[in-house]
Amino acid sequence: MVDFVKSWNSEEKGRNLSALLLTQICVSFGGLSIPPLIPFFQSKLEFTYTQVGSLMTFLYFGAMVMSLPAGWLTDKLGIKRMIFLSQVFIGFFVFLFGLIMNHYLLAILFTFLMGLGYGMVNPPTTKGIMFLFGRSNIGFAMSIKQTGVPIGGAIAAGLLPPVAIFLSWRVSFILAGISIILIGLFCYILYYQGQESIPSSPICDEETCQTKLKNNYQNKNLIFLSIAGAFCSFVQIALVTYIILYLKDFKKFDLILAAF
Question: Mean pLDDT, the chain, as a whole number?
C-alpha cells in the first residue's frame, strides 16, 4: 500500500487510472443492465425463463468471441482508442435494446453485440494498468480497476429499476446507453496517451508469437485458472440473472427491493 502511494508521482497517473476505472464501471454497467430489468420486459414480451437466461449466455458468448481480437486491437490502436470504442460499442447496443427490441431473436442479437463491447474492455484497461504501475504495484492497482465490475452492476441494480417503474424499461435502457457513450467520450478526453500505447514496431515476429501462444495454451496453471474462472462466472451469471425473478415471483419481493 505504501509503495503504491509512493508510485503516484504525476497527475497523469491519477487521470489515467480514473479513466480506466470509469471505463470498467461503464462497460460493466452496460453489460449488467439486463438482469435488474428482466422482470419488466419479460412480462411485456412474454419471454420464458429459458429465453431470459439465454440473453446473458449470448452476452458472454459475444465477450468470449471478442476477447482475443480485443487484445490484438489494443496493440494496434492503443489503449485510449480502445477504451472509447468499448464504451461506444456497448452503449450503442444498450440504447438499441431499449429503443427497438420487441422479440426474442432481436434480443439475443443485441445482447451478443453488447457482449462484443463487453469483451473489448479488459485488454486495454489491463494494459493501461501495466504501463502505469509496473510489476511492483500491479496487483493492488489491478484490484482498484476491477472494483469497477461490481460498482457498475450495483449502479445498474440501484438506478435502472426505479426509472423503469416511473417511466418505462425502454427508457431505462435508452438512458443507460446514452450515459455510457457520453462517459466514454469523457474518458477519451481524460486519458493521456503516452508513446507506450501504440508500439512503433511489432511485439514479436509471426513465428515467435505463434510459439508463445502455443505455450500459453499448454500451460497447466493457466488452464486450471481458466477452468476455475469459468465456474466462478457460471455461478455469478446464474445468480444475477435469476435471483431477481426468484425473489419477485416466489418470495413476492417488491421489484426495487429485489433488484437492490
Answer: 86
Q: Residue 79: CB partners within 8 Å, gap ≥ 6?
A: 124, 125, 127, 128, 131, 191, 193, 197
Q: Where are the domains of the chain?
A: 9-259
d(CA 161, CA 194): 40
- Is the Cβ–Cβ distance between 126 and 138 less than 8 Å? no
Instruction: Write the DSSP assignment of 24-61 as a string of letters.
Output: HHHHHHHHTSSGGGHHHHHHHHT--HHHHHHHHHHHHH
Region of residue 144 (phi > 0: left; psi between -120 and 50: alpha; otherwise: beta): alpha
Rounded Cα–Cα distance for residues 186 and 104 (Å): 34
Assess whether pLDDT exceeds 80 at residue 19: yes
Could you give the CA distance from residue 173 to residue 37 in angstroms, rounded to a whole number?
Answer: 9
The three three-digit cell numbers of residue 141, written as one number? 492497482
Nearest to 39 by CA among 260, 244, 177, 252: 244
pLDDT in tens, 184-225: 999 999 998 875 544 444 556 666 667 777 777 788 888 888
109-136 pLDDT tens trace: 999 999 999 999 999 999 998 888 877 7
User: For the domain with range 9-259, which CATH number is right: 3.65.10.10, 3.40.1050.10, 1.20.58.340, 1.20.1250.20?
Assistant: 1.20.1250.20
Checking if the pLDDT of 94 tops 90, the result is yes
